[in-house]
Amino acid sequence: xxxxxxxxxxxxLATMDGxxxxxxxxxxxxxxxxxxxxxxxxxxxxxxxxxxISSCNQSMQKLSLSANNNVSTHKTPPRNENKKxxxxxxxxxxxxxxxxxxxxxKSSKTPNKADRFIPSRSNSNFDLCHYMMNREEDKNExxxxxxxxxxxxxxxxxxxxxxxxxxxxxxxxxxPEGYQNRLRVVYSQSKVPSTVKNTxxxxxxAPDRILDAPDIVDDYYLNLVDWSASNIxxxxxxxxxxxxxAGTGQIDQLLSLEGSETVxxxxxxxGGGSHLAVGTxxxxxxxxxxxxxxxxxxxxGHTGRVGSLAWNMYVVSSGARDGRVVHHDVRQxxxxxxxxxxxxxxxxxxxxxxxxxxxASGGNDNLLNIWPIAQGQHYSQPQYxxxxxxxxxxxxxxxxxxxxAGILASGGGTADRTIRIWNVNTGxxxxxxxxxxxxxxxxxxxxxxxxxxxxxxxxxxxxxxxYPQLARAAELAGHVARVLHLALSPxxxxxxxxxxxxxxxxxxxxxxxxxxxxDHTETxxxxxxxxxxxxxx
Length: 537
Prior knowledge:
The chain is α+β, with helices and mostly antiparallel strands. It is built from 6 helices and 30 strands. The chain has helices spanning about 1-15, 25-35, 40-75, 125-160, 185-190, 515-535; strands at about 80, 85-90, 210, 225, 230-235, 240-245, 250-255, 265-270, 275-280, 285-290, 295-300, 305-310, 315-320, 325-330, 335-340, 345-350, 360-365, 370, 385-390, 395-400, 405-410, 420-425, 430-435, 440-445, 450-455, 460-465, 470-475, 485-490, 495-500, 505. Helix 2 (about 25-35) packs antiparallel against helix 3.
């Protein structure tokens, strides 16, 4: 049946004389719809239409009169004939004239009136009718919108009588427990108080000087650099020890070991003396007089290489691969006054506190031990005061704070990478910071509340930290291999770093402010005078 329906549709579309079922409505249909929908508008429309029709009739009568006048007054223009008898149109004839007068045929004579009339359709004014027809609907919509707006304003005013224009339907959800808004400082403090001063200072990012250190041993567990109070730098390179005078720039070779022996550690005696302790790979500790450039004595007591040394007045303590700490009294013939089994693996860090009360030892067993000294300088204490196991790698970087008694900084190796601040008076871990790199050495500043650390994998840099919050003050890059050792100059302004890239770099990290330098010098002179007077008494 589908094909018959299709054929019927084709036939209905092809029919030309049937009624129109599609397309726009006829004018009489539109008029009837308007009258049915709005009778008042239809009457006005009729009045407007009648007026337009009457105006159209008047204009038609005028046009017909003008046409008759044109026909009566103007005769048919003459035709010009040439000699051959051909007719040519008149040259005076112009198009557009006598619009209502048709061109006469050959058989017809002069016409008396126009054939048909074409009225001006602009007089029907359909736009006016459309406006009149839709004006009532627009008024109804505007009235409805005005009513809705009035009702909304009324509701708001009714709510305003209760005292609040805006209110929540329910309370805001509470913040999760322990949540801290990171932007709290932005809107809790409008400006910085006048009592807060700018504590930033300039720290040079480039080294002040670079020295060559060929054949320096790339070993994390050794301590090959030390700076004396008399401004002499001792550096161990392979099996030799060199002395560099930082004031004059003079370089001297102190010693050279025989065979396959290497230097594993160096450390100057306290108080600006000229004696240097040297630990060797043959498990011995040698004492050298650097003024006479002569070896004073050789002290044994270990079964492995001596990788760390620390002086406490006339006693030099040595830590070795056998895990023992031996205290050597250089004044006595029998130098070994005490031996302690401090660690189960190699000792790589050893430091005495400035007041000589505590010895800190760090080993490859990831332990940090604090050893006290008994009254009367008895070194035979076999029991440690504290044993901290928070580090996850070997503890080599050790440094006591020079201006706060009992404060110790320690750094761990590659698996740990943290710096921890300890208070050995209470055994508390004051602060901890993750450095993201292997910590090889630590040095405190004597002029500022800061410390500097040397790092290995993965950044090979020096970092200056503010104490006690351990915030980064500066990052000093330049070494292309790990920074194994650090040393502080006697005046406390320069830090020397020794890297596995066989270079020594001097950094002006702790330069004194010129405004404070005068006060610092006067204070130091007053302390020296006070100590001199006490010696006289």
